[in-house]
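Lecture 7 notes: from sequence to structure.
We start with the chain below.
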Amino acid sequence: MIFIIHEPSRVRFGVDVQSLRGLSFLARKMCATFSCVYGTIYTIIKILRPINYLP
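Predicted C-alpha cells for the same chain:
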C-alpha cells in the first residue's frame, strides 16, 4: 500500500485495488474465525450454565 507519487495513477490504482482486495479477504477471514470462536464459547457457556446453578 506504499505509493510512489510520480507513478501513473493507473498503476497506483491497481496496487490500491490489490491491497484492498487482500484487506477485505483478511477481514472476512478474521470475522469468520471470530464468529466461530464466539459461537463455541457461547455454546460452552450455555451447556455449563445449568450445571453452575446446581448446588
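Points to note: The chain has a mean pLDDT of 73. Helices lie at 9-53.
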